[in-house]
Amino acid sequence: MKTSRPDRRGFIIYSFFFICFLCALASINEVRFDSLLKFGRCALSNINAPNSTSTANVLLAPNSSSDDEIRILFGILTLPDQYHRRHFLRMIYGTQTPVGASVDVKFVFCNLTKEDQKVLVALEIMRYDDIIILNCKENMNKGKTYTYFSSLPEMFNDTKGPNRPYHYVMKTDDDAYFRLQSLVDSLKPLPRQDLYYGYVIPCPSMDPFVHYMSGMGYLISWDIVEWIRESDIPKNHLEGPEDKIFGDWIREGHRAKNRYNAKWSMYNFPEPPTRCTHELWPDTIAVHLLKNQEKWITTLKYFNVTDNLKPSKLYHIP
Ligand SMILES: *[C@@H]1O[C@H](CO)[C@@H](O)[C@H](O)[C@H]1NC(C)=O
Ligand SMILES: *[C@@H]1O[C@H](CO)[C@@H](O)[C@H](O)[C@H]1NC(C)=O
Ligand SMILES: *[C@@H]1O[C@H](CO)[C@@H](O)[C@H](O)[C@H]1NC(C)=O
Ligand SMILES: *[C@@H]1O[C@H](CO)[C@@H](O)[C@H](O)[C@H]1NC(C)=O
Ligand SMILES: *[C@@H]1O[C@H](CO)[C@@H](O)[C@H](O)[C@H]1NC(C)=O
């Protein structure tokens, strides 16, 4: 009786390693050992109850459609007190559902300075969760653009997500109107690396490889965002007109071998007429300098944005 004990223990250990061996074999070649795989999963699930649905997804569906989807962080630089503007822009962007991309619209500003902001902005975040507060003081031309881009890698450093949280990051103003589907369609054929996209300054220029992109809105790929965080070039050159300085960093750092000039799909509102604009036309990605309600209404009407209003007994809009 006494001698049979080690034998039994030996048998149990042997069986355990045999099961492990089968599992290993099965996972090495899941097609040929398909039935073994099932057995292996079964055996494993008895040991430590793995998350079998996610395992199955990895094995059976390697082609995840989210690979094709362009992920864009759409940052609108604004000021904490611009409550009404934010609510308005939430309508403007919340009623657009671009196909082939996921676009995260965020409002970006520096540290709060007033007591009422601490309540009102916190409520907005609780309701909409679309605000980024940077560690800076509100300023003109003293590095808000740098703080914006250079803060993002750490803010979106979730290791569980994709290795690039976004393919592209946009920086735009609260007086610009973007048509997100047109933006997404224009991005589809473009590289997702080393890209600098926007409206080339000066207005008559069509060459994106000289000068820089207008502050009406420009977009860069995530690798350039990371470069801005890591490189000394932007750090040592913060003061001055933000968008022009951005162009200087790119030139000095020899970045953005891929550039895209979205002119004349991006332009200023037609009034006043300048060399930076033309009439509203269908092939539009962005209209800038919408400085008052009348200009917004003209623009929104032109693009038929309320055409899809669903009919209802509850209202009548002639
Ligand atoms: C299985 O994975 C899903 C999604 O990743 C997760 O929500 C769930 O909690 C996991 N279940 C177990 C038992 O780990
Ligand atoms: C992944 O699925 C998409 C859409 O179903 C398809 O167009 C694409 O060719 C697939 N890619 C691979 C690598 O199978
Ligand atoms: C912004 O606010 C944070 C937290 O309140 C503070 O630690 C930081 O010093 C402030 N930054 C500036 C530039 O005022
Ligand atoms: C992400 O950033 C936070 C805040 O700085 C930090 O505590 C955390 O360790 C970072 N995580 C990773 C994975 O880098
Ligand atoms: C808006 O709708 C009108 C009338 O249906 C149409 O003629 C016009 O082309 C539309 N405008 C745009 C920019 O799609």
Automatic annotation (TrEMBL):
The source organism is: Malus domestica (Apple)
Write the lineage as a comma-separated list. Eukaryota, Viridiplantae, Streptophyta, Embryophyta, Tracheophyta
The protein's matches in InterPro entries, at most eight in alphabetical order, are given as:
Glyco_trans_31
**Which domain of life, per UniProt?**
Eukaryota
Asked if the record carries the keyword Manganese, the reply is: yes
Q: How does it sit in the membrane?
A: Single-pass type II membrane protein
Pathway assignment:
Protein modification; protein glycosylation
**From the UniProt record, which GO molecular function terms apply?**
hexosyltransferase activity
Report if keyword Manganese is assigned.
yes
What name is this protein filed under? Answer: Hexosyltransferase
